[in-house]
């Protein structure tokens, strides 16, 4: 029988009703009482890293989750992480960079409804997650939700209330769970042993452009950060013409060794800064990076990881553009 470590972090799945609304309270051991089928699949041990609403999740929590996996890695066949849905995609992406080439499954799941209510998706999601963790064919970091297995670097919450809350962005789902069995579609290669990383640079910020946004907003983010992602429009760019002061701001930041990455607010198909004048100059004159088909969640986590490995902007760029867990596929050679 497989041996699985369940790591609790809180979230809706662990929530109980209070006078101020739902708040996490249940621990991993309590989950298993609601889903007896799990113990028929495997032997389970539980560890509680935190018990918080995922809105309160931070990079320090990501590091704690990664440490829990690393500490138990030799003793277990797989890992199930119970997590709130709101920031699960960020955590899945971060773990994909902190734990690379894992031959064992590291599965995140959660729910839109608490596990103790009569009508809930939590029991199915939890059982599905353990099914994937025990099966072993889909290794590495994944999100299991609504019957789908999604690569950790490609997951995004696209519905705020529906049970099928997560989508795989710019990449197919890895498989589905049907009638209690995993049907894998894509089995990605994994290394013989994982590589664990232990640092994230949290001085990373995200600026979402809106029409007419004053450059001062970007200036503040650049001053306070080592790396800034600019979430732009369409295939990417920043305002020119009367708002051309974006360009000298970015040039000054790049000259100071800060890393600037441009991504897009459009969910599908990614960026291509070479298409329009407002983006072309960013690459040719300023040397900013771009996300191509990466999700914003993955780009944020990867920039934190890369900046923790090096403060040399050239090396950070190399790390950012090096594919990890199929996170970037659309970059031209």
Describe the structure.
The protein is 31% helix and 26% strand. The protein contains ten helices and 18 strands. The chain has helices at residues 28-34, 37-41, 59-72, 88-98, 122-135, 215-224, 246-255, 277-286, 296-309, 313-321; strands at 2-10, 15-18, 21-24, 42-52, 78-82, 99-100, 105-109, 140-145, 148-151, 155-157, 166-168, 175-178, 181-184, 195-196, 204-208, 227-232, 259-264, 289-290. The protein has an eight-stranded mixed sheet with strand order 4-1-5-7-8-9-12-13, with helices on both faces. A four-stranded parallel sheet has the order 15-16-17-18, sandwiched between helices. It has a two-stranded antiparallel sheet with strand order 2-3.
The strands making up the biggest β-sheet line up spatially as: 4-1-5-7-8-9-12-13
Low-confidence stretches: none
Mean pLDDT over the residues: 91
Overall spatial form:
elongated
What's the main sheet like?
8 strands, mixed
Percent range of helical residues: 25-40%
**Radius of gyration computed on alpha carbons:** 20 Å
Roughly what fraction of the amino acids lie in strands?
A: 25-35%
Helix/strand-derived category reads alpha/beta
Count of individual helical segments:
10
């Amino acid at each position: 029988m497989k041996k699985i470590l369940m790591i609790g972090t809180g979230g809706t799945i662990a929530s109980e009703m209070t006078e101020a609304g739902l708040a996490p309270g249940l621990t991993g051991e309590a989950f298993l009482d609601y889903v007896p089928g799990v113990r028929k699949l495997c032997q389970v041990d539980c560890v509680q890293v935190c018990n918080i609403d995922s809105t309160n999740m931070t990079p320090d929590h990501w590091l704690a989750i990664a440490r829990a996996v690393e500490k138990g890695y030799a003793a277990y066949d797989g890992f199930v992480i119970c997590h709130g849905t709101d920031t699960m995609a960020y955590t899945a992406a971060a773990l994909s960079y902190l734990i690379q080439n894992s031959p064992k499954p590291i599965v995140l799941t959660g729910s839109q409804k608490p596990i103790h209510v009569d009508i809930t998706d939590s029991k199915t999601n939890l059982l599905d997650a353990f099914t994937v963790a025990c099966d072993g064919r889909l290794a590495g970091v994944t999100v299991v939700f609504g019957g789908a297995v999604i690569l950790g670097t490609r997951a995004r919450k696209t519905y705020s209330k529906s049970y099928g809350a997560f989508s795989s962005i710019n990449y197919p789902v890895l498989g589905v769970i049907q009638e209690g069995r995993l049907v894998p579609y894509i089995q990605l290669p994994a290394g013989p042993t994982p590589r664990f990383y232990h640092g994230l640079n949290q001085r990373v910020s995200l600026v979402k452009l809106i029409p007419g946004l004053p450059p001062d907003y970007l200036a503040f983010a650049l001053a306070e950060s080592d790396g800034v992602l600019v979430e732009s429009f369409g295939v990417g760019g920043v305002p020119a013409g009367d708002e051309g002061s974006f360009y000298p701001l970015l040039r000054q930041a790049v000259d100071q060794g800060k890393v600037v990455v441009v991504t897009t607010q459009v969910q599908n198909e990614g960026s291509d800064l070479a298409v329009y004048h407002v983006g072309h100059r960013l690459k040719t004159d300023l040397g900013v990076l771009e996300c191509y088909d990466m999700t914003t969640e993955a780009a944020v986590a990867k920039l934190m990881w890369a900046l923790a490995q090096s403060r040399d902007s050239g090396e950070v760029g190399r790390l950012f553009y090096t594919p990890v867990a199929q996170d970037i596929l659309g970059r031209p050679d």
